[in-house]
Amino acid sequence: MKFIPCSMRYALCAMLLAPRSLPLAFGQTPTESSCIACHKLLDGAQLEPVTAFANDVHAHNGIGCESCHGGDPNPALAEDAEAAMSKRAGYVGKPSRKNIPQLCGKCHSDPAMIKRFNPALPTDQLATYRTSQHGQRLFEKGDEKVAVCSDCHGNHGILAANDSRSSVYALNVPATCGRCHGSAEYMASYPIGAQQLADYDASVHGQALLRKRDLAAPACNDCHGNHGAIPPDVASISHVCGRCHINNAELFEKSPHAKAYAEMGLAQCEACHGNHKITEPTDERLNPASDEFACAQCHEAGSEGWKNGAEMYGILTDLKTKIHTADSLVSQAERAGMEVSEAKFIITSADDELIKARTQIHNYRATILRERAKTGVDLATQAVDLGRAALAELQFRRKGLAVSMVIIFAVAAALYVKIRRRDEEWKEARNEDRGSKIEDRR
Amino acid sequence: MNHSTPKTGFWKDRFPLDAVAYFFKKKTVPMHRHTIWYYLGGMTLFFFIVQVGTGILLLLYYRPTAEAAFESVQFIMTKVQFGWLIRSIHSWSANLMVAAAMVHMFSVFFMKAYRKPREITWISGVLLFFLALGFGFSGYLLPWNTLAYFATKVGTEIVSVIPFTGRDMLVFLRGGEEVTGATLTRFFGIHVAVLPMIATALLVLHLLLVQVQGMSVPPSQSENAAKQKPMPFFPYFLLRDLLGWLVALGILAALAALFPWELGEKADPFAPAPPGIKPEWYFLFMFQTLKYIPAKILFMDGEVLGILGFGLVGLFWLFVPFIDRRPEERRASRWFTAFGWAAIAFIIIMSLIAYVIPQTF
């Protein structure tokens, strides 16, 4: 009876030999080893490990090929492949998919070892991987189609997760997960479909991360975990979403819906917002006249819950309309050159209050929402008044200008007439003067 | 014996200004083809008076600190009764004053009115024009908005390229290494105290010399003017002056009401300079010229050379009565006339280019 499979024994041998094969100082790249010297002379798939390994984070930390594959890296054996890859030298060759997690874990689960290179790096990857859907299927069901370390991180060209070229860098995570979860063919044997990547791509989160390149937006691993990737269960969804949407989650927990959803087995946030394809929520979800009216999913027309939703829609619509009115009045006054910075500041504050009011919806109580929206309504009313006052002032100015122009024109016309009269008098005086001079000369 | 006593009155006894009244009664204005240019000086004076009046009203509410300047101007424009009008008139009138002064100065130059014995009148006039530019530059910063802040930063930076004293002058102007609240307070002091004091003294001298020496007749018009009887200043010319002032007032009111001067955003010294900032139109030709000067000319820094060049042209302009002696000898000074036209063409072309091409500082 074999307690340890053959390939594992090779891996263990390699592990035992590993300290001997890690004599390189930190930061020293193992360029000259029997493996590299020999593979450099090959081509195609045999050459690829050498070229990819040049950028590998392990290579940059002085960890050579033998750490995973075993064998003797002594450069003197570059031309003696048999000796370098002999069983005596602990050569493992290509590790099987099933053994990859343990192979990586031999270092990455060893705090003392990791501390030598990157003390901030966690060492629980293998342990959490075992709890993931991937790990469970791999270890318990022997399903080798599931993702192992190298599927996400790569093999010979592994980069640090914060390197923007890395396949596990935040912006690249959806594509990395999507390599399997976006392929209908690959996922055909699983009951979860392969729509997740396309849905995420169309979601607000996908738009923010992939289009706006906003690293604060969640990628797959932010909700599902990375090494311990698992779909959040019904009870934990609000906690997962609540890591970012703190206020919404808190309000939901205190709302009458929290208990009702738990009893009904409904997935908290997901029940209204969906999961991967979370689109921008609009107020139409509270509009009884709209097909999107979310309350109607559970509440019958005319029931308390239905009315509550309709009332919340009315409160938000009222606030939005007031802000819109204020904005249009103030913009009109601004275009005419009026100083309206105070009104604009108030509108911005009212907008903030609208956002707060929308968050308040998660408490599902129209009476509380009305109270919270009051500040916004008051601000919007104040801005409307200021906008109207600015336009009234504009009219006053225009009328004032017209009156001033009439007065100025009248005075100027009178002055002109006076000048003409004086000129005539002066001309007459000059003529008389000239005449008397001629008389005198005579 | 019957002694006739001179007619007296309360005011006449206390202010015996008969000589002054007699002077104005006898004061005349020469009549010829270019008489119209004589109105420009009075027009500039009118805008200056408007500036003084509106400036005093703004002073009642303006607070010259980095923390409160912007808000106080905002308060003037939104809360003070007719505050917007006063501020808008002050800003528009400042621009019209510089424009009127510029046209007046060039008309005097082309009419060779700087020739003997009016050299000091010319010098005091040119200095008044430079002071008007100083008023504009120092006043531009006072609302403490973004455009003003960065325009002042760029404007004062130019001073630092002057050899030997440049750095000290920059620190003196800014009240430190950077444009801060200290610069604002300093500019305020210069704008409302230092410049008005010097300007008043120069203005009194300038007007006194104009009254004493009378209007200069251009050499080309001396025969024409001799044929026509001069126009008595009072009331004929004065009435025309008043009509001009009324028209100017109408234009000013329309501009202030239809295009109120914008306040913009409050200055943020830590924010990057916004795109498209440019100085006031009367400085634009100099900024554009400095842009076209290569970084190095022979062994000298291009910008230093440009500043020195403008300085030399300014000195030449100031002392032109002592350089161009031909008009007083009744000889034509065509080179100087050509220089004047070339200067006008240069200012117009450079300013237009600066308006057409987007500005980046």
Helix and strand arrangement:
The complex is a heterodimer of chains A (442) and B (361).
Chain A: H1 6-17, H2 34-39, H3 48-53, H4 57-60, H5 66-69, H6 81-84, H7 100-108, H8 111-115, H9 125-131, H10 133-141, H11 149-153, H12 173-181, H13 196-202, H14 204-211, H15 220-224, H16 237-242, H17 246-254, H18 256-264, H19 268-273, H20 304-335, H21 341-360, H22 366-441
Helix pairs in contact in A: 9-10, 12-13, 20-21, 20-22, 21-22
Chain B: H1 10-14, H2 18-26, E1 28-29, H3 39-59, H4 69-78, H5 83-110, H6 119-141, H7 146-159, H8 166-174, H9 181-213, H10 222-227, E2 231-232, H11 233-258, H12 281-292, E3 296-297, E4 300-301, H13 302-318, H14 320-323, H15 334-356
Antiparallel strand pairs in B: 1-2, 3-4
Helix pairs in contact in B: 3-5, 3-11, 4-5, 5-6, 5-11, 6-7, 6-9, 7-8, 12-13, 12-15
Summarize the structure.
The complex is a heterodimer of chains A (442) and B (361). Chain A has 442 residues and is mainly alpha-helical. In chain A, 58% of the residues lie in helices and 0% in strands.
Describe the structure.
The complex is a heterodimer of chains A (442) and B (361). Chain A is 58% helix and 0% strand. Chain A is built from 22 helices and no strands. The longest helix of chain A is centred in the C-terminal third of the chain and has 76 residues, at 366-441. The N and C termini of chain A lie far apart (158 Å). Mean pLDDT of chain A is 87; it is low at 1-29. With 361 residues, chain B is mainly α. Chain B has 15 helices and four strands. Chain B starts with 9 loop residues before the first helix and ends in a 5-residue tail after the last helix. The radius of gyration of chain B is 23 Å and the shape is globular. Chain B has a two-stranded antiparallel sheet. A two-stranded antiparallel ribbon of chain B has the order 3-4. In chain B, a hairpin with a 2-residue loop joins strand 3 and strand 4 (300-301). Chain B has helices spanning 10-14, 18-26, 39-59, 69-78, 83-110, 119-141, 146-159, 166-174, 181-213, 222-227, 233-258, 281-292, 302-318, 320-323, 334-356, and strands spanning 28-29, 231-232, 296-297, 300-301. Chain A binds chain B through residues 337-339, 341-342, 397-398, 400-401, 404-405, 408-409, 411-412, 415-416, 418-419, 422-423, 426, 430, and chain B through 74, 77-78, 84-85, 229, 231-232, 235-236, 239-240, 242-243, 246-247, 249-250, 253-254, 257-260, 262-263.
